[in-house]
Structure formats: C-alpha cells, structure tokens
User: Fold this.
Amino acid sequence: MLSWHSGNSLIGDLYPASKRGKAIAIFMLGLPIGIFLSNMFSGVIAKAVGWRWVFFMATVPGLILAALAFKIKEPPRGASEAVDAAGAKRGPLQYFQTLTIPTMWWIILSGALHNFNAYTVNSFIPLYLGRHHGLDIRDANFIAAVVLGAVGVVGLIVGGWLADWARKRGPRGRMVVAALALLVSTPCVYLAIGRPKGSLISFMLLMGFGWMLIYVYYVTVYPAIQDVVEPSLRGSAMALYFFGMYFLGGAYGTWITGALSDHFAREAMLAAGASTLEPFRAVGLQKAFYVVPLVSLALTFVLFAGALTIRKDVEKLQKRLSEPAVK
Assistant:
C-alpha cells in the first residue's frame, strides 16, 4: 500500500491537473490486471496443489518490483505546477492543516466506504459463487477474474479520459463523474447479487458492468486530492486518506460481512428447524452481500457532498499558490 501512497503523490508532481486522471489510470492498471491474474491462476493452483502454494508464489513478483523501485527518481515537490509551490516543511502539524480542507473529510470518508466494498467483494465473490451458484474453486475464480479484474482496465482507461475532460469544465467535474458512476453501479451490483442459482451470464453482465464503474472512483478521487491540497502537503494528505481507506474500510469490511453471513445463516437454520448450519451458508452469504450496494449508495451521497465543497477549496488553493512566498 506504500507504493500507492507514494505513487499517487509523485503523479501530482509529474503531471499537471488537466492530465492527472489519465496518468493515474495508467498507474492504477496494475490493480485490475493483478486481480485478474491472481484470481485466474490462484484458482488453478489451489485446485491442483493446495491454497498455501498461492501465498508462497505471490512473494516472487513483490520482491522483483521492490528491487526495481530503487530506480525511480523523485521529482521536486510541485514540479508540475505553474507557480513555485514547493512550500515549507511543517512537521506533524501538516496533518492538521490538511484536515482544515472540507473536501478532504468527504474524500477520506469516501475512501473508507469504497474500501469496505472493495475488500468485501474481492474477498467473498469466489466463495459466493461457490456457495450460491455451485461452482468449484477454479471456475469461481475465473469468473471473479473477469468481473472484478478484466473490466477494470476499461473502467480506468475510459474513466481517466472522462475525469480529465470533466475537470477542464470545472473544479467539480471529477467528483461529479465519480458520484454518477457510483449511482449507476449501485443498482447493477444489487441486481447481480439477487440473480438465482445458475444465472451466471446475467450475473457476470450486471456485476461486471457495475464493478467496471467502481474503478472510475480511483481516477476521479485521487486527482481530486491533488486539486485541493498544496504540493508540500500531498504526501501527508495521501497518508491520511489511505489511513481512513484501510483502517476504517478495508479492515472491517470483510469482518462485518462475514459476521452478517454467519448471522443470516444461523437465522435461516433456526427458521427451518434444522440443527446443521452448513446447508444455510449460501443464503447467509447472499443476504450479507446486500451490505455492498447499501454502502455503495452511501458512498454516492458522500461523493456528491464532496462535489459541493471542492470548488471553494480549489479556489482557495489557487489563490494561496499565486501569492508570493514569504521569506
């Protein structure tokens, strides 16, 4: 996750505001490609030699990329800005200064909600396909690779272009695009979860299209952070954002969904007068999965709220950057 934090901050130094959506889209391609490859091969490996080998083999690419990271040259802070905006170092107070920006609060909250869903869906979709649709681990992971990974390439590329196009038409553009993408995605995911057993084509179409729109979040919200935060604070802003994203969202999404799944399975077992939980785990997970569109709807409103505050924050930043530096 450190690479995402530093990478997004560096993109703000390398590319002007009008091109950051497309730049982040290219940078973030590693996410859907990685999800596609991991689901595609982990299912095959797990079925052939056991799931433990998946974790052992996953360490090799990480070690190679860690070595290559030493070759990255860091640009000066604010190198892409039209003014001298390197700024002064502020120490721990820089976090508090970042939190004085109203839009950052909405963006941090959006990150927590987004990662709640991202971790929940990526973790439970193969299990859901196995329990509800009766697929084995290889076939379940193949479908997950397509509807959660492959679609992301399209979502990022098209979304990055659309984000930059919208930003040229006003400071609110990117946040509005993000909110509209989630507004359309939410009912698609809801309908996909409700598809009856064996309806795999309709599930893939609905879930794939809905999750493709989820990827638009990255290429709109990430550059929006750089739109409202001055260059010298962008590293701190990304740190705060990712803290909320993973501590508040990623850490609890799977735990809450898993607890809901067990609760609904036990409820169904008691309603049927049965004494064995296993036959009811499928209905338990399906009901628990409805938390995803519910959180997605909340995320939509948060993004619209951020769109209402971002114009004023962008104007404040531009005014501050245009002022002569105090010696």
